[in-house]
Amino acid sequence: MKITVFGAGSWGTTIAILLASKGYQVSLWEHYKEHVDLLNKHRENIKFLPGVFIPEGIAITNSLEECLQETECMVVVVPSHAVRSVLKRCSPLIKKGTVIVSAAKGLEQDTLSTVSQIIESELPAEIIEDIGVLSGPSHAEEVSRYVPTTVVSAAKQEKTARFIQELFSTPYFRVYTNLDVKGVELGGSLKNIIALASGILCGLGFGDNTNAALITRGLAEISRLGVAMGAQRETFFGLSGIGDLVVTCTSKHSRNRYLGELIGKGMSLNEALASMTMVAEGVNTTKAAFILSKKLGVELPITTAIHDVLFEGMNPQKAVEGLMTRELKSEW
Fold first, then answer.
1. Which helix (H) or strand (E) holds 51?
2. Residue 147, domain extent
């Protein structure tokens, strides 16, 4: 089977290596020609995944025509804001029956769409039978070094979810199936907002008690919005929900947590973003979730506070005080 992975960041590179290790013919597509040249020269993603060797068998290119020729499966790992433009270019080149897997996390700011919804809107229905999603607590820095990891494969059709499960599963990368595509995608996207908050708390100097409260109440917000959008509540208590939330709020590898920490220490959003090389999906997702909360009438106090810190100039310390002094309520 020939598989093309779109996006040569840390996660895209890791997925390409994992699939190549299983004997598949893998192409790795990258938008920027200079990055492609560096990857081919060093066989290492020095910028995003240093210290991990890229096997010679993986073809690295920025030519869509080259990488899509005879491709039977596409794995989309570009940042969420770039998915639509990449798919528009791919659409005329994709053959009927190609399996599409989204491994990107985020919500499109203008349309409030999940990544699978973006893909579905850009590709002809007669070409694509189903779109799968791969999500869960899976930092590339660990998966690429064979650290045991478990994730979820979701699709509307069980046969698609199982196909993706078998495609990716290895002795160190265990994949479960789920038919709640929307819930799996929302869990993987909305947790980045809470991770931003976790980083801000760390930057302010707060401790484990505060972070535990944030994760717990953050999960309540994620599931509340998810259910209002048609997802199943149980999904948010699985790997793509609480699992991804915990790892993103506690790990040194979390780019969203790191961004929040810089803001908690006094940087503006623009200053913090300028200091990073990787994309922090939580910024755009915060805007999208804030709009959705107003549209659907769902109360999201943590998300609203992060929105005000990022985009309205609210002092992070004041945001915490506002959350702690809200009207007293029952937990359930």
1. strand 49-53
2. 2-179
Residues 194, 298 within the same domain: yes
Q: Are residues 39 and 75 located together in one domain of the fold?
A: yes
| 139 close to 254: Cβ distance less than 8 angstroms | yes
Are 227 and 156 in a shared domain? no
Asked if 49 and 39 count as a contact pair (C-beta separation under 8 A), the reply is no
Residues 156 and 206 placed together within one structural domain of the fold: no
Burial category of 313 from C-beta neighbours within 10 Å (exposed 0-12, middle 13-18, buried 19 and up): exposed
Q: With contact defined as beta carbons under 8 Å apart, do 256 and 199 qualify?
A: yes
Q: How far apart are CA 85 and CA 269, in angstroms?
A: 26
Which residue, 231, 132, 241, is CA-closest to 180? Answer: 231
Q: What is the DSSP letter of 237?
A: G
Per-residue model confidence as pLDDT tens digits over 102-149: 999 999 989 999 999 999 999 988 888 889 999 999 999 999 999 999
Contact yes or no for 193/163 (Cβ under 8 A) = no
- Tell me the whole-structure pTM to 2 decimals: 0.95
Give the residue numbers marked as catalytic.
Answer: 191
Task: Give CA–CA dist 263/158, Å, rounded.
Answer: 42
